[in-house]
Batch of 3 targets.
Target 1
Amino acid sequence: MRKNNNKFKIAVSLLALVSVFSFNACSKTGTEKAKKESVEKKESNKKKGPGRSPQAVSIAQIVQTDFTPTIIVAGRVQAIQEARIFPTSSGARVVQLLVDAGDYVRAGQALARLDGRQIGADSELLAAQVRRAQTSLAEAQVSVTSAREVLNRSSSGPRESALSIDAAEIAAAEARSQYERALATNDVGALSREEIERRRHQMESAQARLNSARGDMNAIMQSRRQGLSAAQARLAAAQADLRVAIAQQAQSNSRQNGGLITSPVGGLVTARNVSVGEIAGATGMPMFTITSNGALEVAAETSEADIA
């Protein structure tokens, strides 16, 4: 019995000894771990630098998102560049259509044909305008020549006035001389006061006639200078009218092309506003509308807030 009790005491003692060693080991391990964390924390603070505290961050899952907004607006589809084809001859009747809306055409391609008789009449009308402008120019040239000759004759001495300036100057000088002689004899009493006054009036009248003659001459010269200027202005206008008439005739001749209406550009015919038998240009609308190269665009309006 005593033997068994000794065995029990030995077992308890061994168990207590093991517990002490285990506690010391755990305590040592915990102390070393704490010291290690303290050292790591100090190293981390050194790297961050003084005065800086850790910053909080947010973590989110990466997803794919479309940031392009969709705006719905009302607009219209229109041509980027279009050509409107009008008739080359006003009042001409359409005798043939060569294309229709929806057709693609090339530059220079014939679109329609007009009645050649009306085209010939238009050409003759333009030729008549040129001839009339040439006649007006010739008349204006004659007027300038005549006005210049009249002005030159006036400068060399006009004879239209009843009293020429030369005669008026002679009369004024003679009257002045008579009055001065009368004044010179006034002290000796050779002439009466009435005679002296008469001679003074004669001198004043002669001077007035001289001034009037000179004024008439100036008026005549001014009038004839104005006549020359007006003739020169009519000549310039006639020259301009002739240039316009010639240009219109040349433009019409280049556009007639035997009555063919051609396309200036290549593209899509988007509208045809004329039919066979109709008078081209009677409605004021273009015969054809052609979208250059068929290129279209959308024109729309939207507020600034929708696209901000």
Target 2
Amino acid sequence: MAVRQDAAMEGKTCDVKFSSSSLVRDYEEHTGRKISEESTANLPSDVRQETIRSLFRNKGALATSANWEGERRIKLTSCLKQASAHFHRIADFIRQGKPVVGCFRVDEEFHTLEPEEIYHCEAETEAETHGQIRFAHYVLFVGYGYDIYDEAYLVFLNSLGTGFGNNGFGRVYFDEIYKDWFYVLKAKAPAVAETGASTSSNIAQGR
């Protein structure tokens, strides 16, 4: 979204698609750990997102586009972490059109969120999940509002496709979201590569 926003500001269209699997590979090579086998019990709670943030800024992630052949690495210009974030602060970023990502705890019921629902994770402890999976899930926040009881919520775009929630979008109460794990992203749209030039190892660095 950050790349497309930058392109739009310059009156350009953007079809850049990032490879999430390349970020996973970079993470595993950097840490020497397999994510699928990684136990976070003895690791800092934010180790994954902080490592990915560093890799995305310093190394970039592989991406494809009709404007170049193969894959090309694109870096984040900045990834500002918001600690102890308040609702109005995050709402301001969203109002300004800045990409904001964050995470909240979910269980299996999250996948069946109805279009009119505002998500709330009922299970407070592992014992209350009754065997269901409970984990932290990252999303892109694109809107905000209040319910009929004046409780604040954020609108998010999920990564589960248009079959989720309301055509791929959902709502979650702000109090459910981890307040120290908001990130505001910025990236520079890559220049179109010259015809015939090799771009597989090029890096588009934000300025």
Target 3
Amino acid sequence: MCGDIPDSNVKLSLCWKFFISKSLLTEQFTNRKGQFSFNVLMANSERIIMKLAISIVLFNIFNILQCYRLIHYRPRNVVNTNTMLNFSGTLMCKGVPDNMVKISLGCKNILKSFIAKEFPNRRGQFFFNVRKNQCRIGSYFLLIEHHCKIFQPKCFIRFFIPLNIGAYIKNSKNSYNLNYIDLVKHYNGQQFLCSKQYNKVFNRN
């Protein structure tokens, strides 16, 4: 009614409300007498209820998965210590700590590839921390380049040390200490080299 007069062409919508969700069932306009009548099938209502129930179940599953991710989340920059290998040792030149040495850690399979390079500190100590999967099939080795007791300019000695992991005592931290390596000794397969690239080889940058 509009006052005491029937009001026609009024749009009415019949909706179904379930918790916070609303679904439209049907719409119509009033007739000339201002009358309206809705006929809704129960099957239609049941279908809407089913859709809402499925939506609620999916929403709950999503929340559970989000909670699981938060509980078991591990930042990418956190490294599992069980996947790491540590190599360390001290380089000496006739009993004196030597820090003018270039050390390269590599992996030998069919070919040789290098994983990391560094120079020892003032005490001659060096340390490598690498992932186990960086050398899954091959074997580790050290390439050492030094000029201990070498007095010719731009000359140095190069030799390899195979790292047979099984020969070292393994502790809970997967650390392997090569102890003292005196460079004044003669090592199998060592090479005496003179090169214009000398400064590049021993460049710490």
